[in-house]
Specification:
The protein is an alpha/beta fold. It has a single domain, classed as Aldolase class I (TIM Barrel, Alpha-Beta Barrel), CATH 3.20.20. About 45% of the residues lie in helices and about 15% in strands. It contains 11 helices and 8 strands. The chain has an 8-stranded parallel beta barrel with strand order 1-2-3-4-5-6-7-8, surrounded by 5 helices. β2, α2 and β3 form a beta-alpha-beta unit. α1 runs parallel beside α2, α5 crosses α7 and α7 packs parallel to α8. The longest helix is centred in the last third of the chain and has 18 residues. It is globular, with a radius of gyration of 17 Å. The structure holds phosphoenolpyruvate. The site of phosphoenolpyruvate (PEP) has 13 residues, from β8.
Amino acid sequence: MRQPFVAGNWKMNGSRDSAGQLLEALVRDFQPNGAEMVVCPPFVYLADAMRTLRGSAIKLGAQNVSAEESGAFTGEVAATMLQDFDCSYVIVGHSERRQLFGEDDENVARKFMAATRLGIRPILCVGETLEQRDAGETETVVRRQLDAVLEAAGVHAFVDAVVAYEPVWAIGTGQTATPDQAQAMHEAIRTRVGEADGTIGDRLRIVYGGSVKAGNAAELFAMPDIDGGLIGGASLDAENFLDICQSAEKAGAN
Ligand code: PEP
């Protein structure tokens, strides 16, 4: 039995005020009923978020982490610093980091390991572009992204990790993968990890990301290998995000 997982990736949105209001609404209205809820605000709001979330069931995550431990890396944030703010999770390998900030598979694997070394659970994002899907390369691309981390970190590092399948063409576009398309890739990811260790593969939480909304979450989460979602735009609205979380709880209970 895998605990449903829903994380909100706020990206570079909002202000200190709006972040505070969103968190307060989530803390007020979230009634935990089996799903794990995580919010990933921008770094500069982590301190406020840590204080607001104290005593609530909602966990805190970051959107990125440095692969380096400390030192002369201007603008970077180390895993130890995330630990200072009670971050339980960190997103690594988001397609925006890969595409806009030049992060490659090796870099992503190093970030994954920087997090797991300190007990911060990585949310590892993998996914293909539209060109790669059209060229029939979806499985090859996702497998390459996954293998880079499996080979560098070892399958045991996946015990506490979450994998997010996020087709790049579905992120922020309103074009969601169909439940069947998403399920096929989630199954492929589970099979790949399962080849390295069957138990870890079975227990691994694999969540879908890409234009998930309150209106389409239930049908996605009903698929057997979809254990929840990584939510961008819809996580900026408390009511929508809570609805999505409820869909994950219901799917987990079935
Ligand atoms: C994301 O940024 O990880 C994401 C899935 O965004 P959206 O839900 O807005 O497509």
